Amino acid sequence: MRHLVVDSSSLISLSSNCLLWLLDKLRADADLQLVATPEVRAEVVDKALKIERFRLGGVRVLKRFCNGTIVIDETDPVKTNKILRTANSVYKVKGRSYKIVHKAEMGLVPLAEKKGTGLMLVDERIVDKLINNPLGLKKVFERRLHMKVEIDKSKLKELKSLIGDVNTVKSSDLVAIAYEKGLLKEYVRECASKKTMKDLVSGSLWGLKKSGCSISTNDIKEYNKLLF
């Protein structure tokens, strides 16, 4: 069985679009086990259940912990703290470190290594770009802050060493995989057609984008081009 370490951002995106059932399908058909840290569960379940507007989403995610689609595992706290300190020292604004990530997010990296997959499901843009395109993230911060952002090259080198071969996928990738495996057919069985399926995939991708998945309009066009 393959393991995929999951961040709260992806669970929120999927839950907001009623797409968590895809995780159940992928577990059964693709032999994929999702793994979360206790901190992730606390954010998407425990915290959500205490807030009325997020309570339904919290129950949706809770179901996936109860049915075994997502399991809990501990990460390495020492390495997590080291990654956290380093990541929050990479970018400088006016000579001072610019804090960009939190402990729960960085705890996914050691857990992904522990599970032997080196793969994280993350929709949040900062974490995704920090791992895959740190120079691009610098430009994001400069546009956001309207000022120059510096990169501490020694800290970036240290961060890359700590992260190693860990990489990320997004919830949009799971939609594409589910389509390719034929797992979406059941959803439109009563009104099956190529157009309906294309509308389902496109609608899912746009819904995820609007719910926080860090994909662009061009990314959605590329998905549609590749899949159809």
Question: Briefly, what is this?
Answer:
By secondary structure, the chain is α/β, with parallel strands linked by helices.
By CATH reckoning, the class of the largest domain would read Alpha Beta
Radius of gyration: 18 Å
Largest sheet: 5 strands, parallel
Structural class: alpha/beta
Name the strands of the widest sheet in spatial order. 3-2-1-6-8
**Helix content, binned percent:** 55-70%
Question: SSE order, as H and E?
Answer: EHHEHHEHEEHHEHHEHEHHH
CATH architecture of the largest domain: 3-Layer(aba) Sandwich
Keywords, please?
228 residues, Rossmann fold, 2 domains, 13 helices, 8 strands, globular
Structure notes:
With 228 residues, the protein is of the alpha/beta class. The protein has two domains: 2-73 and 170-227, Rossmann fold (3-Layer(aba) Sandwich); 77-106 and 124-168, no CATH class. Helices cover 58% and strands 11% of the residues. It has 13 helices and eight strands. It has helices at 8-16, 21-29, 38-49, 55-66, 77-87, 103-106, 108-114, 125-132, 134-145, 153-163, 171-180, 194-210, 217-227; strands at residues 2-6, 32-36, 70-72, 91-93, 96-97, 119-121, 150-151, 167-169. Strands 3-2-1-6-8 form a five-stranded parallel β-sheet. A hairpin with a 2-residue loop joins strand 4 and strand 5 (96-97). Helix 3 crosses helix 4, helix 8 packs across helix 9 (134-145) and helix 11 packs antiparallel against helix 12. The longest helix is centred in the last third of the chain and has 17 residues, at 194-210. It is globular, with a radius of gyration of 18 Å. The two termini are 29 Å apart.
